[in-house]
Amino acid sequence: MVETVWKGTSKPSALCTFLLLIILCIFGFYSLHYPHSTEINPNAPNALRFRQIFLSSATNYTIAAYLRALTLHPHLAGTAPSLATVNYVVSHFKNLSLQTHTAQYKTLLSYPTHSSLSAHFTNGTVHDLSLSEPSKNDNGDDAAVVQPYHAYSPSGTAFAKAVFVNYGRDVDFEAIKELNVSVKGCVVIARRGDLPRGIVVQKAEENGAVAVLMYTEGEEVKGFERGTVMSGVGDPLSPGWAAVDDAETLELEDTQVLKRFPNIPSMPLSVRAAQIILDSLGGAPPPEIWRVHLRAVGPGPTILNFTYQGEKKVATIHNVFAVIRGSEEPDRYVLLGNHRDAWTYGAVDPNSGTAALLDIARRYALMMRLGWQPRRTIILCSWDAEEFGMIGSTEWVEQNLVNLGSKAVAYLNVDCAVQGPGFFVGATPQLDSLLLEVTKKVKDPDSEGSTVYEKWAATNAGTNIQRLSGVDSDFAPFVQHAGVPSIDIYYGRDFPVYHTAFDSYEWMKNNGDPLFHRHVAVAGIWGLLALHLADDSILPFNYLSYAEQLQRYKRILSNLLDENVSLHPTYKKKKNVSLHPLTTSIQELVSAAKEAEDEAKILRQQETTGDSVVLKKRALNDRLMLAERGFLDVDGLQGRQWFKHLIYGPPGDHESKLDFFPGVADAISQSTRMSQKESQAAIQHEIWRVSRAIQRAARALEGELT
């Protein structure tokens, strides 16, 4: 049991005291204290009162209890044990009297059936390398933990020399070529870095390797890091449409399906097993720039005997939803989402987020009993099969694309709520101002007397808000396919038991968040963001932040092109392209954003609530909501049409240094294989496409036809 240690320091009003007594009677424990919030909307005192109730009703005890229940057993998507977590979340929502339903999809998942690995040394000895991973999880079911594997890896065997390729990047393969080292016909050993696993395998295959083994390094790292090697997101048998019953499905042998999977087998290694192999390598020493404590990179003389057998099969996955219907705008949706499935016990990834979501549901239900109903509809979403490639959320977005496009206000994502210390957040830029305001109202979990904002601002990076170009959690389909404004929140950047059997409740209790205060902070920020988005009469979107971010992107791109700085390791040519289209379109967005801000200020000051004012607010809110959709392009990114967003999305070349304008990044990467004239035309075309997208967003914000 985790005791509550935060105490209130200010004298509450009689009303607050009464409400807190109700809370204590209902739940039987003390509440954590938060600083009183400053009212953002002066015309909504009732909304302010319920925000204070929401923050005051937080407890670390309940979140800890939820996490303990969720992590008793492994719950890999598509397996029988995963149904226990489905039922747990459904029961929780129903017991709170929330409108609850599920959505099922039949999707292609991947599981291991057999694997083995042995090292054959030059002295004739053979070392069978252990691929087991007992976590010693208290009350856990270690026998049910899936053996280490890479989902969607093809089955295969290899008996070949081992060779070390650092992180498996293009620059790494080029470096060992300069050492006259070839990986052709070898088993590649790579340490995990920023590249997706599937890209590492792809690059190894392109260089002639026959298999890939990956390990995660670090002093506290233990176990095997599982993960997927499939490219893209969503069910591979239903690309672009939902995998519902009786839907069209592609054959497993379809070219469009096969291109999502690697052609050579791969598997995770423990750092201990990797070290045994690496210490036995001969040949050339590693390049100094790799900064690795290794005598040689190989190939050989050690030979690896590697076998992996797996199966791909269609399994049913389950998304769970709780709906709190809006009183005034029930057709406008604020979505809070977290995935529920885990490679093993999933205490950090993802059930720290699940526990926070369940506690938000508890607090919202309490508020409803006290008379609260949101202005707009709130939907709590529990996704399945995220670990395989954001499958549950992607299928749901594809199924509901039109309604999301016209009715979704925002999507708020939490995956790993707590990995360790330090607040991190990513967002589309129109939500920056709201994030800053909300973090000023939630107590910092690690600094007595400070807010999250104050501690965050005091860090070296300051209040750095990341952007959502990656494809590493469930915000991806919402931003990059549907164009829904989104946020992603978490505490701690990395943790040493990622995707291993050691990601257990015990690790969280002993290491990640012993008093569960960080969980409380995440839930407070997450739920308070949703309350503003659901209850504020004018949506708290600021597109001036978006315009400022785009201006910064234009300056970075301009400097890189003008200074002939490489955006790609092999890109050396100066490109004489014009950024004038970007300048013009961004200025249009600035003008539209200023007009929207001025209009919002006037409407917020309107004391009357007549039909005319209501309609004006509704019209402005629709423009604020729909402007993000303008950044979508119907044709999507070239060669990756599913990704529609031209500002934020993954570049085709994962080694590109451009983390915005993915189409421009792709054109620059591909320019090394074109003539000067062709490459300049390709880059210029992508700049025009981005410019047109920004113009569409500006015109949506203006709301007028040309």
Low-pLDDT runs of 5+ residues are 1-43, 564-574
Which range does the strand content fall in?
A: 15-25%
User: How many distinct helices?
Assistant: 21
E-strand count: 14
Rg, Cα atoms, Å: 26 Å
Inertia-based shape: globular
Distance between the termini: 63 Å
Largest beta-sheet characterization: 12 strands, mixed
Helix/strand-derived category reads alpha/beta
| Arithmetic mean pLDDT | 91
Strands, helices and their partners?
Elements: H1 14-27, H2 45-56, H3 60-70, H4 82-95, E1 99-120, E2 126-128, E3 150-151, E4 156-164, H5 170-178, E5 187-191, H6 197-206, E6 211-215, E7 227-228, H7 255-258, E8 266-269, H8 271-278, E9 303-324, E10 329-339, H9 351-369, E11 376-383, H10 391-399, H11 401-407, E12 408-418, E13 423-427, H12 432-439, H13 452-457, H14 475-481, E14 486-491, H15 505-512, H16 517-535, H17 543-562, H18 580-604, H19 611-626, H20 662-670, H21 676-702
Parallel strand pairs: 3-7, 4-5, 5-6, 6-8, 10-11, 10-12, 12-14
Antiparallel strand pairs: 1-2, 1-9, 4-9, 9-11, 13-14
Helix pairs in contact: 2-16, 3-9, 9-16, 10-14, 12-16, 17-18, 18-19, 18-21, 19-21, 20-21
Descriptive notes:
37% of the residues lie in helices and 16% in strands. By secondary structure, it is α/β, with parallel strands linked by helices. Strands 1, 2, 4, 5, 6, 8, 9, 10, 11, 12, 13 and 14 form a twelve-stranded mixed beta sheet that branches. The protein has a two-stranded parallel ribbon with strand order 3-7. Helix 9 packs across helix 16 (517-535), helix 18 packs antiparallel against helix 19 and helix 20 runs antiparallel to helix 21.
